[in-house]
Amino acid sequence: MSQTITIDPVTRLEGHGKITIQLNGQGEVEDAHFHVTQVRGFERFSEGRPFYEMPSLMARICGICPVSHLIASAKACEAIMSVRIPHTAAQLRRMMNLAQMVQSHALSFFYLASPDLLLGMDADPKVRNVLGLAAAKPELGRAGIALRRFGQSIIELLGEKRVHPGWVVPGGVTEPLSTEKRDKILAMIPEAYGNITLALGAYKKIAGTFKEEIEVFANFPSNYMSLINEDESIEFTDGALRLIDPKGNTIEDGITATRYSEVIGEAVEPYSYTKFAYYKPLGYPEGSYRVGPLARLNIVKHMSTPKAEKELAEFKQLASGLVESSFHYHRARLVEMLYGVERIEEILADSRILDKHVRATAGVNRLEGAGQAEAPRGVLHHHYKVDENGKMTWANLVIATGQNNMAMNLGVLQAAKHYVKKGKFTEGILNRVEAVVRTFDPCLSCSTHAFGQMPLAITLVSVEGEVLDKVVRG
Amino acid sequence: MNSDLTEPPHSEKANCLVLACGNTLRGDDGVGLRLADWAAERFRDDGHVRVVARQQWTPDLAADVATADSVLFVDSSVDSVPGRVSLVAVPSNRGSGEARSHHLEAHELLDLTRTLYGSMSVHAMLLTVGAASTELGESFSDPVEAAIPRARGVLEKAVLRFLSS
To answer: For residue range A354-389, what is the model confidence (pLDDT) as tens digits?
Structure first.
């Protein structure tokens, strides 16, 4: 007799998801899937809108990483305009994207992951949350809140709003940075360093107690993709794509936004509204790859800032080759937060950061444009087509969570096979299966943007495995 | 809406923090934000009152609550009679029993503040307006629209009482 275990909803994620685990007659795990069960419609309802509205429209995809969508979208629009934005605007955008990364990673690490990490995977679910964390480790609770506020405050100082700022526009940004605001941001930096140092120290102390989880949390060879600078340092806002294979060899390099579709394909599966991105030359599913903090740190050779550089060197010592376990996404986030604060401090020291010229203007000079930027959870690709009047005729978005989708599913299967034995499981075991997904920090709101495009299959299966009914749409 | 209606974006000492939440795109759910707009205007020249409006009360707000002597939470309530205006003390240490990470109830935010910052002196009240409909839409139901003047009066008195205590 077969049996299906359903974890619904998967908690402590950005969005709504479900996991099903299929057991065979012996109670062993046969298959497992991570389902994204919500639908959005951004690609479709942007059609007909003026292209210059796209950044503010696309920012609404997400309340956690709207800045990355703003930037990728603005860059696609700038390709349509054929303009190059002023240096100061590029630096200010970079700062806002880093600020967003810090606040998003802080949310992921302190609010979503730390209850598992610091209270234990088997802790009572009633206390395994942010309130329980605050009670057990108040200093880390305060650090998490402070780092969230650090990032949010910078976004608000630059863009007037902490969520969905309309400040990033095609051609640059709407307002330059004032001396007063620069000084306010600089004043927040020492505390941010202190809080990240505290978190890194705490994480390093407890990471050794999760050897089993490290071993089976999506710990397998895969390809990785991220943006990278020409000098092989980490980059969140500009740069070009690099793809490496499981041995760390570069298989694609210098892929600019306009060429993303040469290397990235998207597959669909009937059990999820999120697409499955893959590297085209290898096909699907062999061409699956990972993005986000783990991918970025595996790909880059250095961080360009001294404190993060030291942490990167330690991070790369976690494995003899690439760092493959998705459990290490947590540590990668901390390293990136440290980099973010250092880089923001560097940007504020730029002699041109207070320049008033922060926007270039132009009309429609091309009928097609693409832009890419790193969101906290991985690289985003925005690709638009317009008519001669600048009205949107087509849009395609490839989102981080879609690019991690196959790895998340394989990771869920790997953990389920390890922990669920003879049909027996505990709440702590199911929490570990959920926790695999949490390591990726997926943004399900971002990933489900193709309403009306995805097939949906509902299958009714008897306990003997017989398909009793099936409805397929799309 | 995610905005600090009366102050710059950093925690600053306030004698009274008005902390509203809601969604203006979900009918009556937006009434808390409407009241926050009114409060920001009413107390615009009073440096002792800070008004913050959010779609949700998130854990980050504990740092704001910790800097205030008193907090007036303002929200809609789907559990109340539509249009009913209620002002109650916020209970503490109830224990949520749920794994929340993205939004908190008023009592949870208060508990979090006390746990993290030891702000035991915070006086807190919860002002709610009973919601009739939270379906998609930017207008209020008749009972909520009619209750707004009364809710403003209750809000004003509560803030003035906090300031004088």
So the answer is: 999 999 999 999 999 999 999 999 999 999 999 999
Q: Nearest-CA residue of chain A relative to B98?
A: A126
- Contact A186/B at CB under 8 A: no
- Domain B3-164 CATH assignment equals 3.40.50.2300: no
A3-462: CATH topology: Cytochrome-c3 Hydrogenase; chain B (1.10.645)
Pairing of strands A276-279, A289-290: unpaired
**Of the segments A130-144, A264-278, A331-345, which one has the largest average pLDDT value?**
A331-345
pLDDT band at A327 (very low <50, low <70, confident <90, very high): very high
Q: Look at residue B11 and tell me whether its pLDDT is greater than 60.
A: no
A164 contacts in chain B (CB < 8 Å): 2
Which residues lie across from A395 on neighbouring strands? Answer: A384
Can you give the pLDDT at residue A383? 96
Print burial letters for A177-197: b (CB count within 10 Å at least 16), e (below 16). Answer: beeebbebbeebbeebeebbe
What does the block give as tokens for B153? 């009066």
Res. A453: pLDDT tops 50: no
Q: Does A161 sit within 8 Å of B9, measured CB to CB?
A: no
Q: Give the residue from B4, B57, B116 with the most A CB atoms within 10 Å of its CB, the best one to mutate.
A: B116
For the CA atoms of B63, B69, B74, B77, the dihedral, rounded to the nearest 10 degrees, stands at 90
Confidence category of residue B9, pLDDT binned at 50, 70, 90: very low
Q: Which of A107, A125, A131 sits opposite B112 (nearest CB)?
A: A131
Q: How far away is chain A from the Cα of B133, in angstroms, using its nearest Cα?
A: 23
Domain ranges of chain B: 3-164
pLDDT interval class at A421 (50, 70, 90): confident
Chain A, chain B: beta-carbon pairs less than 8 Å apart = 73
Which residue among A12, A129, A145 sits closest to B60, beta carbon to beta carbon?
A: A145
Rounded CA separation A329/A325 (Å): 8
In this structure, chain B runs to a length of 165
ipTM of the complex: 0.82
- Tell me which chain B residues have a C-beta less than 8 angstroms from the C-beta of A149: 10-11, 60, 63
What is the rounded distance in angstroms from the CA atom of residue A375 to the CA atom of residue A391? 26
